[in-house]
Write a structure and sequence with these properties.
The protein is α/β, with parallel strands linked by helices. It is built from 15 helices and five strands. Helix content is 58%, strand content 9%.
């Protein structure tokens, strides 16, 4: 079994699951959590002989990889027998650096990225499996609806299903009414921004954007990704023409719940307007990467998207 692991990425739920699995497979090991430890302290910890248990599992968070010197790298690459080290989301991680390339030769390295809208089947399967683990049943369309409402974070989805399972008590089936009553919407203002764009309501869109960029400090590039995803889906739906939400969802690879929600917006946009909107979005993305102020560029983009004429 490997002795050194490096896990990083935004999907914390998967990292926690991996760490739990390693601990489960090392039942005899003494588990030690170290947070914010420095390079010298870590090297000292690795060199200490075990007092009571020859097997140790060291779970290290907040360690700055850029501080690792040659001595520490040697120690990490040749750990004492019985010692397993997990570097959990280390700071200063640069895949191009000499430090990372050295450790990579001796470690299991995994990046856990958030799942995208194109991973809907995996997200839906995760919801269904989680519900089963908690002794509950959930129909696939309802799992898709929960993803659309609560977002793509596996940790959040797990918490939502856990909450639903607790709420329904002895009842074995999670219903749509349960989800409507209890599910927490991810990024209410991000949803309001998307909704305002679909309705071509400039005032509501600007209000949501102001809160997202100001109080919530959302990344403008992520907001562009959200807007672009919606425009591309609407354009694909235009191309598909008169098909049912289920047929469109199968062809596009999205959620039938989401497709059905977008269908009412289709008459408000022509294919030409959607194509031009994507061009405007691409230009705004380049402007932001060139240093333009998001508080100026983003409102201009919303104005163009909502008032665009092909």
């Amino acid at each position: 079994m490997p002795a050194l692991y490096i896990f990083y990425g935004e999907e914390r739920f998967l990292i926690r699951r991996e760490i739990e699995e390693i601990a489960k497979n090392n039942p005899a090991a003494a588990v030690v959590h170290l947070d914010g430890i420095g390079a010298g302290e870590l090297r000292e910890t690795l060199s200490l002989p075990p007092l009571f248990n020859p097997q140790r599992l060291l779970i290290i968070t907040g360690f700055d990889l850029s501080d690792a010197d040659e001595g520490l790298l040697r120690d990490l690459c040749s750990l004492p027998p019985g010692v397993t080290v997990i570097l959990d989301a280390p700071d200063g991680l640069d895949r191009r650096s000499k430090i990372f390339k050295t450790l990579e030769k001796h470690a299991v390295v995994r990046e856990h990225k958030p799942l995208t809208e194109w991973n809907l089947p995996e997200l839906t399967d995760f919801c269904l499996k989680t519900a089963q683990e908690l002794g509950k049943n959930m129909k696939r369309p309802l799992a898709e609806k929960l993803v659309e409402i609560s977002g793509r974070s596996l940790g959040r989805l797990y918490s939502e299903i856990e909450k639903l399972a607790t709420y329904i008590g002895e009842r074995g089936e999670i219903t749509e009414a349960d989800i409507d009553r209890l599910a927490t919407r991810e990024g209410v203002d991000a949803f309001k921004l998307s909704d305002a764009l679909r309705r071509r309501d400039l005032s509501a869109a600007l209000f949501a954007l102001e809160k997202l960029l100001g109080e919530d400090r959302e990344d403008p590039h992520e907001l562009l990704g959200l807007i672009g995803s919606q425009l591309r889906t609407l354009l694909k739906m235009k191309v598909l023409g008169r098909k049912s939400p289920a047929q469109m969802a199968e062809a596009i690879g999205g959620s039938s719940f989401y497709i059905k929600m977008l269908q009412d917006s289709l008459p408000r946009f022509s294919a030409e307007e959607l194509s031009l909107g994507l061009e405007n979005l691409f230009r705004s993305d380049l402007n932001l990467k060139s240093g333009y102020d998001a508080r100026v560029e983003m409102p201009l983009l919303l104005y163009e998207l909502i008032n665009v004429k092909g």
